[in-house]
Amino acid sequence: MGLAIGIVGATGAVGQKIIEVIMERNLPISELRLFASEKSAGKTVKLDKYNKEVTVELLTEEVMKEKYDYLLFSAGGSISEKYAPIAAEAGNMVIDNSSHFRMNKDIPLVIPEVNSHVLKGYKGIVSNPNCSTIQMIVAIAPLYRKYGINRIVVSTYQAVSGSGYKAIEELQNQLRDKEYPNKVYTRKIAGNCIPHIDIFNENGFTKEELKMVYETHKILEDDTIEVNPTAVRIPVFYGHSESIYLELKEEVNINEIKKTLEESKGVIVEDDPKINRYPTPIEVENTDFTYVGRIRKDLYNPKGLSLWVVADNLRKGAATNAVQIVEAMENIKMEG
Ligand SMILES: NC(=O)c1ccc[n+]([C@@H]2O[C@H](COP(=O)([O-])OP(=O)(O)OC[C@H]3O[C@@H](n4cnc5c(N)ncnc54)[C@H](OP(=O)(O)O)[C@@H]3O)[C@@H](O)[C@H]2O)c1
């Protein structure tokens, strides 16, 4: 018996990746239904693996009340706000990529490698964390567990695919035509970098930056960690990069840190300056791991550590993490 799965926002950048990841990971499927707005309803999506086409359906309250094993949402916060509770009320498990429910204390915020224990016995809506938070936490959680962390200073270098398919088209068009106007961003993105992701808060941080602060606290269940992020959009199509500075609670031993990271779930260490080995977005595209390089001890603070962390934002930062939550829930069910 397979799983009945529905994808809300199936025609978007994340939705398309979810379909790809489900096929690749051989998730046992009995039924796959795809939902979007009127703009895409009626279009067909090819599932090469099954030699089959699925017609995109219009998202309505009625279809959300039907029975599914899992509904994966990636259609934006307002769609999740309206439709996810209807689906959950009907007894469906919902995995939501939007930020809408993430800070709700009754809703688990899950990175399966880090905190799948919170899914035990749970039914309802589960939130997928922010893409930049996911890759940062996959890399630092093992260090947090072993040494403790006082402070995180992180700067992100985020790909345009993080803003959806319209942003991918905007960069493509601006690379072809210098005069192509900016619609998605406040500035031209081609040849530029923009230190502004999501809206500004009164304290000067953007909402994207504050997500990294509060989601870190929720996932690691520790709000004493001081997190200071700067989130920047750069003209890369796929893959977010992060320069992360950690102040641990103990003195840094670089060999031990590398060994800990090498043994960590979901992490691949790519670090050898002698042969220019470090991860970059192009190299990690279409992979499900979080890559860590440039691992080095601070020149002044014996507890200070710098890392360069790269992952595919549409895969580990969204689609793969959501599918891994389905897999984790199924494993929990099997373990009884
Ligand atoms: N991109 C990332 O790296 C990333 C990472 C983590 C989380 N997320 C989150 O995932 C969500 C989707 O992001 P995305 O990048 O995939 O956006 P996107 O490329 O713009 O896709 C949006 C999807 O939502 C659908 N949609 C829009 N309005 C709808 C409506 N009224 N009813 C039904 N469907 C509707 C669109 O369908 P149509 O084809 O009909 O327009 C499309 O399938 C957002 O909440 C985003 O914050 C994105």
Automatic annotation (TrEMBL):
One of its GO terms (biological process) is 'de novo' L-methionine biosynthetic process. Catalyzes the NADPH-dependent formation of L-aspartate-semialdehyde (L-ASA) by the reductive dephosphorylation of L-aspartyl-4-phosphate. It catalyses: L-aspartate 4-semialdehyde + phosphate + NADP(+) = 4-phospho-L-aspartate + NADPH + H(+). Its EC number is 1.2.1.11. Belongs to the aspartate-semialdehyde dehydrogenase family. It comes from the Bacteria. It comes from Tissierella praeacuta DSM 18095. GO terms for molecular function: aspartate-semialdehyde dehydrogenase activity; NAD binding; NADP binding; protein dimerization activity. NADP(+) binds at T11, G12, A13, V14, K39, S40, S161, G162, N313. The active site is at C131 (acyl-thioester intermediate), H240 (proton acceptor). Homodimer. Residues 4-122 form the Semialdehyde dehydrogenase NAD-binding domain. Pathway: Amino-acid biosynthesis; L-lysine biosynthesis via DAP pathway; (S)-tetrahydrodipicolinate from L-aspartate: step 2/4; Amino-acid biosynthesis; L-threonine biosynthesis; L-threonine from L-aspartate: step 2/5; Amino-acid biosynthesis; L-methionine biosynthesis via de novo pathway; L-homoserine from L-aspartate: step 2/3. Phosphate binds at R102. Pfam families: Semialdhyde_dh, Semialdhyde_dhC. Keywords: Amino-acid biosynthesis, Diaminopimelate biosynthesis, Lysine biosynthesis, Methionine biosynthesis, NADP, Oxidoreductase, Threonine biosynthesis. Substrate binds at Q158, R233. This is Aspartate-semialdehyde dehydrogenase.
